[in-house]
Design goal:
about 210 residues; alpha+beta; Multidrug-efflux Transporter 1 Regulator Bmrr, Chain A; 6-stranded antiparallel beta barrel; 6 helices; about 30% helix
Length: about 210
């Protein structure tokens, strides 16, 4: 049976529209880092590199290589960890040119260093890109977190972040990191802005 993250990992990918706790296990990712306005072409090109690598893994059986433990699955959604430069932190408004980000796409548990090496080989042959050398594979464990489903424009996310901050304070937690994670459940190219669905997440700990 095909593994579909929205059906089989509901706690992680089908959140409520109110803040709630969860524990996020260690996960595997292809990642690439960048800086600046995500509406610009450089961001789009970096996203493209991640999808090239992710589909290289997904389609490996058709390229004559079947990883040990391989199973059919839906490619996971794009995610991003967002921060600001020192200058950006000192501003009284959000300057998107001062954004720092690590964008990523989760990979199935069967992905090993050998599979990663093969994915880069396939990606390089299929779609040579100078940004490929900036992409990398890693494991991340968010652990105890609070998340919420935000519906609508990315520019209105502060409303949802405010709800999470209130929840954290009321339940005697504190943010473990200044960064936050976003998981993009909608295709921004095909979805009306008011209907965009994005998971927002903070990693937290006891005060």
């Amino acid at each position: 049976m095909k593994h579909e993250y929205k059906k089989h990992e509901k706690e992680l990918y089908c959140p409520k529209d109110t803040p709630h706790l969860l524990r996020v296990p260690k996960q595997k990712f292809f990642c690439i880092e960048g800086q600046g306005d995500p509406n610009k072409e450089d961001f789009t090109e970096r996203v493209g590199v991640l999808y090239t690598l992710s589909y290289a893994v997904r389609m490996m059986p058709k390229n004559g290589f079947i990883p040990n433990g391989y199973f059919e699955y839906t490619v996971y959604p794009l995610e991003g960890i967002w921060d600001l430069t020192e200058n950006g932190r000192n501003l009284t408004y959000l300057d998107k040119n001062e954004l720092l980000y690590t964008i990523m796409i989760r990979q199935p548990d069967f992905v090993t260093d050998e599979v990663v090496k093969k994915a880069f080989e396939i990606a390089h042959k299929k779609k040579p890109d100078s940004l490929l050398k900036e992409a990398y594979f890693t494991e991340i464990e968010d652990g105890l977190s609070v998340q919420i489903l935000h519906t609508g424009s990315y520019d209105t996310e502060p409303q949802s972040f405010g709800k999470m901050i209130d929840f954290i304070e009321q339940n005697n937690y504190k943010r473990r990191l200044l960064t936050h994670r976003e998981i993009y459940l909608s295709d921004v190219r095909k979805t009306e802005t008011s209907k965009l669905k994005t998971i927002l997440r903070y990693t937290i700990e006891d005060k």
